[in-house]
Amino acid sequence: MISRLAPAESDPLWALTTAFAHDQREEKIDLVVGVYRDAEGKTPVMQAVQDAEARLAASAASKSYRCLSGNLEFIDGISRFLLGPDSPVLDRQCTIQTVGGTGALRLLADFIPHISPGATAWISDPGYVNHHPIMSAAGLKLGAYRWQEQEHDHSLDLAAAMEDLAEAQAGDVLLLHGCCHNPSGIDPTLEHWQAFSDLCREKKLIPLVDIAYQGFGDGIEEDAAGLRLMAREHELMLVVASCSKNMGLYCERTGAAMIIAPDAKPLENIRFTLERIARANYSMPPDHGSSVAAMLFQDPEPWLAELEACRRRVADIRRDLADELLKLGAAEKFQSLRYQKGMFSLLPITPAQMDRLRQDFGIYGTTSCRINIAGLASHQTPAVAKALFAVS
Ligand code: PMP
To answer: Which residues form the Aminotransferase class I/classII large domain (predicted)?
Structure first.
């Protein structure tokens, strides 16, 4: 029977990570996996997280089962973080804790057929590598819309996205990245958000905003501005959130799924439905990360100061890399790195040139030419700029 199993390929990201581990060159640089690194190239546990963990360990609270929805203080904290502490939308939303942002994506993908059978989920192209597999594993149909820059000013080519979305039908889902688009780094302006919001209203599409990098772009409030605009304007909206990056809780699998409704009436029914989906899958989410996150939300200043330092580092590397490329006389298209937001950018080079970066210079990005900007230690920036210039 096992011989019937079709051959499966290993995850390409992990294959590259393994190749990197086996590379003997000292000057090798890993820009593959999306984790934040500090100026020395380390991914430390945030001090605010360490302090919360010490308090948790000292209190030695019971490890008996928690609520099906997860940690209620966490749920309250993350809802306010996403929507703003005084948002009137807080009264018409239901949030449950999930197994990371990934778990939230799958939970909501499983929820969608309950409210919109036969829906197509429209995802950006290029987009987050896991959007397609998750949505199709949940049985949704997939549509793609272009997510690219306008050459003249490096801003989002809204017309291209809109042209593709003209095909979307009432009841379909429009999946947008809340900020720091993965993999392109191209973020919509508030005017663009307004255009997507208007489109959803006109075509009766359900917005789904996936926000995995709040605090890594322009700041925690600025990064949530598009999501909040949509939340104010829509009676039905889905939100996926992750604490993996902005709290550095990657392996603790801490995230949330939110559903915004027209009013408070259907909220209990929504919660029961989400809990049933979760119960048939993993029962309830892990507690440790959400207990830590709940403490960070209660006393946010130390955590937010650390997050702001991460955000500035990413912005500084973008600027330094763009400056170096300018100095070398590299093509103008490389200046996109300066304007894009967050941890990722797609390099304006071909996959063959990406191979050369790896083979000749020991610089590893994904085969789709994505690099993790935050993976660069500050002293490595000139070397990466020179290598990019050399292969392009
Ligand atoms: N959505 C996007 C856009 C992502 O880039 C990621 C990866 N960080 C996720 C969701 C999944 O997040 P998590 O690691 O919390 O599962």
So the answer is: 27-388
- Top mutation candidate among 82, 97, 106, 130 for ligand 1, by most atoms within 8 Å of CB: 130
Amino acid at 34: G
For residue 29, give its domain range: 11-45+303-387
Domain boundary among 256, 271, 300: 300
* pLDDT per position as a tens digit, 168-207: 999 999 999 999 999 999 999 999 999 999 999 999 999 9
Angle at 332 between CA 329 and CA 338, to 5 degrees: 100
212 Cβ closer than 6 Å to some ligand 1 atom: yes
Q: Which of 270, 300, 330 is the last residue of a domain?
A: 300
Which amino acid residue places its CA nearest to atom 7 of ligand 1?
Answer: 212
Instruction: Answer whether 34 contacts ligand 1 (Cβ < 6 A).
Output: yes
Pocket flag, ligand 1, residue 289 (CB < 6 Å): no
Q: What's the average model confidence in pLDDT over 205-215? A: 98
Q: How large a percentage of the chain has pLDDT more than 90?
A: 92
